[in-house]
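Thread amino acids onto this structure.
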């Protein structure tokens, strides 16, 4: 797609590997994961799972008066009762991004500035509010029960809190959600509809959001945080769910307020048309999405130096992506380094795509490629793919990042070093 050049000028991170860009960068360089074993139902050992939690925050009940946030948080939960826990993460991440971009209120309240957000809502609060209604014979409920719990809660709250007057849109496509939001934001700028876009994605970890995946047999049974998430490894058996938030500020380069951190060259998407919850076994939809992203960016597969893979540590998903990567990059004379950073971060569901786009920006600007930290014996499907175990100091000019979600939704972005 022709049009304005789109640059990233601000990034905010609240994640298991750190709640600042600097902390996340250090974790990626040194291979420090943010996973731990927690009891999702206090006192019930069978509810314990390895998850990715954000340190410094605590939400022990649905009552905002019980919530604990860091001293430097921009949120007072008691004064902002419409926010879900992941909304608190999102505000703090967005404050970081806006500060890095050097924006002031007049910039995000400009009608030429839009918002794209992604989250699956708050299952914990949704259950609480429905239980409250049922307990009162469906006569009495929380006045903000809907706007603080349903899937659009993030864009509802952020648009109102920041006075957004441009586009305001939410995306719900499971693990591809925030990558769709990022692509939409890029197109809004390239088409001249907006000069600037804010993209935010967030998720939270509670029993209501984690254990339903048990019924799908999607979660790992491993109880060791040091090896539970192991993308591309022959012994992988499921993913590790993680919470957190990422915010990204995009601008047209010709009118950018902030200093460019990286450029978004193009993106592509394609559906598998195969199954509601399983990927195409040969990764054909992901192949199409990658090729469309490369075409949109007007680069070849041979130009890519690094791929941040979606690989979540599930048996079927990782294999399909490995086959797709082999198909796309076998055509060129060079196969880029392939890394899934979910061994460090866990799987953030709808916010994973934006987190990994941020990780790509970090890699491009800092001159290194993260490692597949828990990879010990690669799956045979990965034959021929360079899979570094630890971070490597490698200057990269172009990188590709993949996301895949339920229903076979595949989204890919090409980013370039500035």
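Threaded sequence (418 positions):
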């Amino acid at each position: 797609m022709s049009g304005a050049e789109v640059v990233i000028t601000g990034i905010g991170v609240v994640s298991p590997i750190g709640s600042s860009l600097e902390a996340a960068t250090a974790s990626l360089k040194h291979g420090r994961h943010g996973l731990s074993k927690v009891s999702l139902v206090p006192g019930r050992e069978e509810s314990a799972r390895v998850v990715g939690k954000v340190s410094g925050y605590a939400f022990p009940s649905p009552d905002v008066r019980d919530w604990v946030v860091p001293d430097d948080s921009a949120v007072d939960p008691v004064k902002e009762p419409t926010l879900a826990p992941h909304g608190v993460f999102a505000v703090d991440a967005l404050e970081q991004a806006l500060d890095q971009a050097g924006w002031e209120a007049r910039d995000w309240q400009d009608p030429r500035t839009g918002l794209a957000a992604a989250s699956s809502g708050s299952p914990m609060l949704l259950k609480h509010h429905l239980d409250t209604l049922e307990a009162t014979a469906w006569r009495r409920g929380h006045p903000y029960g809907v706007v603080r719990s349903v899937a659009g809660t993030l864009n509802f709250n952020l648009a109102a809190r920041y006075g957004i007057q441009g586009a305001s849109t939410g995306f719900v496509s499971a693990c591809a959600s925030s990558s769709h939001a990022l692509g939409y934001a890029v197109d809004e700028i390239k088409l001249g509809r907006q000069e600037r876009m804010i993209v935010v994605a967030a998720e939270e970890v509670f029993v209501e959001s984690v254990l339903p995946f048990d019924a799908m047999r999607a979660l790992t049974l491993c109880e060791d945080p040091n090896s539970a998430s192991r993308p591309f490894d022959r012994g992988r058996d499921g993913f590790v769910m993680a919470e957190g938030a990422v915010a990204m500020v995009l601008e047209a380069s010709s009118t950018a307020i902030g200093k460019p951190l990286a450029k978004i060259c193009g993106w592509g998407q394609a559906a598998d048309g195969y199954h509601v919850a399983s990927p195409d076994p040969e990764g054909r939809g992901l192949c199409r999405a990658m090729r469309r992203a490369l075409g949109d960016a007007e680069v070849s597969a041979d130009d890519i130096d690094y791929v941040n893979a979606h690989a979540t540590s599930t048996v079927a998903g990782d294999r399909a992506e490995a086959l797709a990567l082999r198909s796309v990059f076998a055509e060129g004379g060079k196969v880029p380094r392939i890394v899934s950073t979910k061994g460090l971060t866990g799987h953030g569901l709808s916010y994973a795509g934006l987190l990994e786009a941020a990780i790509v920006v970090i890699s491009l600007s800092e001159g290194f490629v993260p490692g597949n930290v828990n990879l010990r014996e690669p799956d045979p499907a990965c034959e021929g793919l360079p899979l570094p175990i630890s971070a490597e100091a490698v200057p990269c000019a172009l990188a590709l990042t993949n996301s895949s979600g339920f229903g076979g939704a595949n989204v890919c972005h090409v980013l370039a070093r500035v």
